[in-house]
Structure formats: structure tokens, C-alpha cells
Amino acid sequence: MDNKLRVYINQRMKGSDPYSVILRTVASLLALYLFGKAYKNARGVRQTILRYLIQLARKIPAVQSKVKAETDKVALDMKKGLVVPGEAFHVIPSRGLGHDEVLRRMREMKVYDESKYGGGKMSGCIYLGDDAHTAFANEAYSLFSISNPLHTDAFPNVRKFETEVIKMTLSMMHGPDTGCGAMTSGGTESILMAVKAYRDFARDKKGIKSPELIVPITVHAAFDKACYYFNIKLIHIALSSTMQVDVRKVEQAITKNTIAIVGSAPNFPHGMIDDIQALGKIAKRHKIGLHVDACLGGFLLPWVLELPEYQGQLPFFDFRVEGVTSMSADTHKYGYTPKGTSVVLFHNSDLRNYMFFTAPDWTGGIYGSPTMAGSRPGGLIAAAWGSLVSLGRDSYLHYAREIMTTSRVMLQGIKTIPELNVIGNPLAMVIAFESKSVDVFKINAAMKKRGWHLSSLQNPNGLHICVTVKHVGKEHEFIADLKGSVQEIIDNPNAYKNSSAAMYGMATAIPDRSIVKEIISGALSTMLDV
Questions:
Q1: Lowest mean pLDDT segment, chosen from 27-31, 293-297, 304-308, 396-400
Q2: pLDDT class for 278, splitting at 50, 70, 90?
Q3: Cα dihedral angle (239, 245, 247, 248), rounded to 10 degrees?
Q4: Can you tell me the distance from the alpha carbon of 257 to that of 377, in angstroms, rounded to the nearest whole number?
Q5: More confident of the two residues 224 and 114
Q6: Is 264 within 8 Å of 306 (Cβ atoms)?
Q7: Going by C-beta distance under 8 Å and a sequence separation of 6 or more, which residues neighbour residue 418?
Q8: Distance, C-alpha 200 to centroid of its chain
Q9: Which of 134, 303, 335, 363 could be stapled to 400 by a disulfide with Cβ–Cβ 3.0 to 4.6 Å?
Q10: pLDDT, tens digit, for every residue of 163-186?
Q11: How far apart are CA 530 and CA 523, in angstroms?
Q12: CA-to-CA dists, residue 44 to 56, 457, 511, angstroms
């Protein structure tokens, strides 16, 4: 057979130029390689080839210099926008200014910052903003500002605060009697801890050495960070026509190395609640974990579910769903606590214990910590406990009703603007929209001129508003300003072409994402450098 094939090929290629044969072979292999990459890439063949050509071009010194010059320019423009008035300190002053003078200066700085966010028009970010509650939380923090839960013998009440915040959150999420958890510094750390627990559990109990985690493409980027840190293969699953994760594709992606699957309630980009009940059935069927990321809505959706007017409109997403083995929920969002606290919950301690870190042989003594940090700010834990207990169920239900009423008015208002399309069917407080005819990033710039700060999205390009208590009473103003912004761009398509909106739009369109990574790294460096 081999000999016949050899004779046939030699006869067919007789008289061919060897160089041409090699060139065609290389070109064919390259085409197959690019097609293979494109098949796996949702951006498609054209984008894959374009990205590959850009990567080749970037090896040219002149192109490298041009890219660096442009990324440096972006960082410089950003830095100009970050400069604040007042004296700068690059070394510790030889003589201290004293408490009164420093506080005077800081009060002036606070007034300056309030001019940026104080209008109550930011998407998310400031979830309550009530002066009386903020003053209360600040005092609660100050009472325990020197405390550290690492030293439970010295600060036993900080331990009380933490365990009770965990229990209150478990109760709100209908956790089982075996339920447990921990407090963290925020949603990202809660997610990191859950992912670490699944990885270590699977390694110890199932012998999985090449772990895989399956998530929706809309899941929070903290899962990308967790898998990057913990050397886990992250598998992103596309959305169904409902803009929820495609549960059929989730199940198809499960392998012997899968440690867990993830759903959002709701997700950050579009405010969609994934089909947690379907994911729970899949998790049980394959005997793997299911983490529900409720960092954003975890302290709002449970109360919405209790409001009579929303009965049956929102699906269960918590421990009432069989198959849910862990959850994350941020107290510092709709829990209305100071920034810097979140809760990660587990169905049982068998899983939670794999989150812990221990160093039994350290020369400094036997050491262990429940989460990433060693020392932690007990004041923030105290303020979180104080917020939950002082507000109570009645306040959380009241705020949930106000937020949902406001978001429904905004949703219906957006639907009346013909140039805008609502993404999916948002059931809660995040409303996302796109446009086929108007540049949404320029709309965002026009809204910013009117005092609004919306979140920019990509794939597809869009904007969203995360409705908070600060927006209550401003819903009609929002719709009027949005209509005005859309009309402004229609009347003047070249408006804001040199703004940050134009830069963001450019970044979303760059096929070679390594360039975008360089821009992001430059921006992060700018934020941290004087």
C-alpha cells in the first residue's frame, strides 16, 4: 500500500518545482492551523487570521515602537485625568502635621471626591449612600479598628461578629444545618477561596491532577483570576438564546477532570440569572460541585423573592436548589456595609476545610488561616455585623422594593428608545442594552456629561446600569438623559471622537488581545505610580 501511494504521488508531482511543493505544503498546514484555532474561537476565521497577522507584524521593530508609543500615550492621557489638587507627599515628613491639620486636608479631599460621585448617578459602586447609616458604620468600625481576628484570644467579639454574619447569610440563603462559610475581603477573594476548595478537594478525594472549571462566558473575571493563580483549566461556555449559560453545552464540556461548574445570580454584564436549577441537576448527575456566584445580587435577590408582588417572577438560586454546594455574596454591596467584606458559603465543612491554609512546621509556631489574608481588619467585620443587625429584615425588604420598582421603570423606558435593544430579559436590578445604529460608547460619554456613570460592556458592545438606592427617584431623569444622549450622537456622529469612549471602543475592536493587555497593564501602572 505504501509503495503504491509513493508511486502515485511521485507520478502526480513529476516535473513540479520542489520550492513550490514545500511552499504549498507550508501554506496548507498554516491554513489548517488557523482554521483549527478559528473553530475553537467564537470570534471566527476572519478575526483569528487578522490576529495572527497582527502578531507577525508586531515582531517588526518599527511596529513595536509604534505600539509602545500609543500605549504610553493612553497611559499619559489617563494620568492627566487622575491628578488631584493639593500637596503631594513622596517621603514621610520630618515633622508630622498633627491630627487636626491632616483631618482638615482629608475633609477637603472628601469634598473633592464627592464632586465626582456625589450626584447619585453611578452604576452600582455606592449602594446606599445614606449619611446616617454611613456615620453609624464608621463608628462601629472605629470601636474595633485595632482588632484582628487572627488573635481570637485578644478579640473574642470579632470572632462573634464573623460567625454571626456567616450564620445570618446562610439563613438568608436557606443553607442546610451543615452549612458553613467564612468572611473575606470582597467578591474576588470569596471566589478565589471557593475555587481553591474545589481544586484541593478534587485532588485529595478524586485524584484529579489536571483540574478543569466550567463557567459561563458572562461569569465574573475573578474566576479567570482564580484559575490563573491556581493553575486550573478554565472552560468558558457560550450563552443560549435566552442570554443565560447554555446548560446543554455545560454538560457536554464535563470531563473526568471537571472539579465544578458555575452559575451567576445575576451576572455582572447583563444582569441575567443563569438556570441554577438545571445546573444543579447536572452537578448532581455528574457528582461535581456547583458554585453560585451571587456576589452582586446576593443581598438583594433573597429579599425580592419575599416581596408578594414578585412571587414566582424570580427563580430560586440558593441552597434550596439541590446540587448547589457553595455560594458567594458580597455584604459590601446590597448588604450596605463598608467596602471590604464578602461571605463565601459552603454546603458542608468537608468542602470548606479545603479552603484553609495550614503550616504546621513553621518555626514561628503552628500557623493557619481560613482565607488568603493572615491579619484581617476586625473593624470591617464589626461594621458588617452592625449593618446587618441595625438595618434588619424590614429595611432590606423596603430597599429591595424601591430598587425593583425603579429598575422596572428604567427597563420600560429603555425599551421606548428605538435605537436601543435591551440585552436578554433582566429580572433584577442590572439592565444592559446595545445598539445596532449608534455608538454605545459615545452614548456613555454623553451620559457622563449629564452626570451619569454607566458600565461599558463588550461582546457585544453595550452599556449597563446597576440600580441602587441612590437611583430611587431619578428613574425618569435617567430615561430623559438617555434619550437626549442618543439623539445627541445621532445629530453629531463625530462627537466625543477623542474621548475615553473612543479609546474603549477601539480597544474592544483590536483582534490581538495582547495589545489590550499592554494597555491595561499601562493603566494599572499609572494608577499605582506617582
A1: 27-31
A2: very high
A3: 10
A4: 37
A5: 224
A6: no
A7: none
A8: 23
A9: 303
A10: 999 999 999 999 999 999 999 999
A11: 13
A12: 19, 20, 11
Q: Is 118 helix (H, G, I), strand (E, B) or coil?
A: coil
Eight-state DSSP code of residue 273: P
C-alpha cell at 495: 462627537
Q: Which is nearest to 429 in space by CA: 414, 412, 444, 407?
A: 407
pLDDT of residue 277: 98
Residue 221 CA to residue 192 CA, distance in Å, equals: 11
C-beta of residue 161 within 8 angstroms of C-beta of residue 154: no
Sign of CA dihedral 171, 172, 174, 179: negative
Question: What's CA 223's distance to the chain center, in Å?
Answer: 8
Strands 430-434 and 421-422, sheet pairing: antiparallel
Angle between helices 475-491 and 378-415 (to 10 degrees): 60
Q: Is 297's pLDDT higher than 90? A: yes
End-to-end CA distance of the chain: 72
6: its cell numbers: 509513493
- What value does the CA radius of gyration of the chain take, rounded to a whole number of Å? 27
Q: Can you tell me whether residue 55 is helix, strand or coil?
A: helix
Centroid of chain to Cα 108: 32
Identify the DSSP state of 245: B
Cell 461569569 appears where?
219
Cβ(189)–Cβ(372) below 8 Å: yes
How far does CA 335 lie from the centroid of its chain? 18
* SS3 state of residue 421: strand
pLDDT > 90? residue 75? no
Residue 353 — very low, low, confident or very high, per pLDDT cuts 50/70/90? Answer: very high
Residue 128: exposed, middle, or buried by beta-carbon count in 10 A (0-12, 13-18, 19+)? buried
Q: How many CA atoms lie within 13 A of 235 on its CB side?
A: 19
Number of Cβ within a 10 Å radius of residue 484? 13
Quote the CA–CA distance of 449 and 472 in Å, as a whole number.
20
**Model confidence pLDDT, tens digit, residues 403-443:** 999 999 999 999 999 999 999 999 999 999 999 999 999 99
For residue 353, CA distances in Å to 59, 193, 197 come to 48, 10, 7
What is the rounded average pLDDT for all residues in the chain?
A: 90
User: Which residues, 6+ apart, have CB-to-CB distance to 6 below 8 Å?
Assistant: none
Q: Which three cell numbers stand for residue 414?
A: 429603555
- Looking at residue 33, its pLDDT comes to 57
Torsion angle in degrees (nearest 10) through CA of 184, 189, 190, 192: -140
- The model's pTM is 0.88
Q: Over the stretch 380-407, which tens digit does the pLDDT of each residue have?
A: 999 999 999 999 999 999 999 999 999 9
Q: H helices within 416-474, ranges in order?
A: 440-449
pLDDT score at 500:
66
